[in-house]
Amino acid sequence: MRNNGIIARYRAHMPVSDDTRIISLNEGSTPLVPALALSAAIHPRLEIHLKYEGLNPTGSFKDRGMTMAITKAVEDKFEVVMCASTGNTSASAAAYSARAGIKCAVLIPEGKIAFGKLSQAMIHGATVIQVKGNFDDALNLVRKICHDYPVALVNSVNPYRIEGQKSGAFEIIDDFDGVAPDFQAMPVGNAGNITAYWKGYKEYHACGKSDALPRMLGFQAAGSAPIVLGHPVEKPQTFATAIRIGNPASWKQAVAARDESGGLIDMVTDDEIREAYKMLASSEGVFCEPASASSVAGLIKLSGQGFFDAVQPRTGDKIRVVCILTGHGLKDPDNAIACAEEPVTVEAREEAILEVLGYSVPAFV
Ligand code: AN7
Fold first, then answer.
1. CA angle 56, 218, 36 (to 5 degrees)
2. Strands 264-268 and 46-52
3. Atom in ligand 1 nearest the alpha carbon of residue 84
4. Angle at the Cα of 114 from the Cα atoms of 48 and 102, rounded to 5 degrees
5. Which atom number of ligand 1 is nearest to the Cα of residue 117?
6. Distance (Å, rounded) from C-alpha 93 to C-alpha 88?
7. For the chain, how long is the longest CA-to-CA vector?
8. Rounded to the nearest whole angstrom, what is the distance from the C-alpha of residue 352 to the centroid of ligand 1?
9. Other CB atoms within 10 A of residue 95 CB
10. Between 124 and which of 46, 98, 183, 195 could a Cys-Cys bridge form, CB atoms 3.0 to 4.6 Å apart?
11. Residue 360: its pLDDT value, please?
12. How does DSSP classify residue 113?
């Protein structure tokens, strides 16, 4: 069946009416990729699946929420929308606003967003404003302006964003024919996504479409781990700029998702994230952005602590885990190049190539 986006696919669960003009780029229905090599490398009893959200229209999970938020902004007659962003929200807001024919302004922390994301916001024609501050400063400004002016706020504090993003949970359950995974692992930044997934899982379970609820495992970067530390981080740091957030707006909801599901929220260092990022690309062929890899980094950390040794899978003999790979690796080419081996440069001669490949070169050439 043709994919018409998440509002069409899950219409009964979405706040739209017959008259609603839906603004969509046919987002969602992303692949759930089994990760055999990764599973074996991390723990013999793990069965990891990767929800590859990088394959959404603007390259991140934000499109699920943005189709809903922009659809409702248009329905509510807004002509301008605004967001603060570590990059992906701005890319998505800019694209969906362009499609809707409304204005979009994005506030981003100066110099701290990945190049691909910046290029997206710019090419879609958003007003891009770099703030000399971090994401948290930018979000405070956006909240104030949207309160005082007729501007729709499209960060994940907008409940329509959560409604759209919960569709990720529906897709996972549908792909597993109504069987919930044992765990879901995901990065946590502003904490909208963990809030949305948990809402989605609960809704699907309540209407009998899912047999159980997964335990939610959230991971923050160690330099930006307010929820783990129990207090806001004034100057958040991490090379995974998408989750460089010191005071998450959906903090309470994230803690509720953790506690209600019997899960946890932990932190992973930049080195651990980098390792997982490279592993995903080199052993699974899946290129995600650094923040996304914190989900896998978290599994490696937990496995090393013996966390999975005592876990009983609900069905079968494997512990089924879904990792949400929230954004595409091409968003952030600078980090990919910095983490990988440099290409070699040679003369344009066959022997030079053969030498690099380790094939023996005949002596007479
Ligand atoms: C790739 O774009 O906050 O916990 O402004 O881009 O729901 O915030 C992005 C967040 C994970 C964290 N992975 O999700 C923004 C922004 C990627 C992201 C997160 C983000 P939330």
1. 65
2. unpaired
3. 5
4. 100
5. 2
6. 8
7. 79
8. 44
9. 26
10. 98
11. 83
12. S
The preferred substitution site among 137, 238, 243, 331 for testing ligand 1, maximizing ligand atoms within 8 Å of CB, is 243
Q: Which residues of the chain have pLDDT under 70?
A: 362-365
DSSP class of 261 = H
Handedness of CA 327, 329, 333, 336 (dihedral sign): positive
Please give the distance, rounded to the nearest whole angstrom, from the Cα atom of residue 88 to the centre of ligand 1. 7
SS (H, E, C) the chain: CCCCCHHHHCHHHCCCCCCCCCCCCCCCCCCEEECHHHHHHHCCCEEEEEEEHHHCCCCECHHHHHHHHHHHHHHCCCCEEEEECCCHHHHHHHHHHHHHCCEEEEEEECCCCCHHHHHHHHHCCCEEEEECCCHHHHHHHHHHHHHHCCCEECCCCCHHHHHHHCHHHHHHHHHCCCCCCCEEEEECCCCHHHHHHHHHHHHHHHCCCCCCCCEEEEEEEHHHCHHHHCCCCCCCCCCCHHHCCCCCCCHHHHHHHHHHHCCEEEEECHHHHHHHHHHHHHHHCCCECHHHHHHHHHHHHHHHCCCCCCCCCCCCCCEEEEEEECEEHHHCHHHHHHHCCCCCCCCCCHHHHHHHHCCCCCCCC
* Ligand 1 pocket member 294 (CB < 6 A): no
pLDDT tens digits, one per residue of 279-319: 999 999 999 999 999 999 999 999 999 999 999 999 999 99
Give per-residue pLDDT as tens, 318-337: 999 999 999 999 999 999 99
d(CA 358, CA 347): 16
Atom of ligand 1 nearest to the CA of 193: 7
Ligand 1 mean position, distance from CA 358 (Å): 43
Structural tokens at position 263: 């899960």
Ligand 1 centroid from CA 260, angstroms: 22
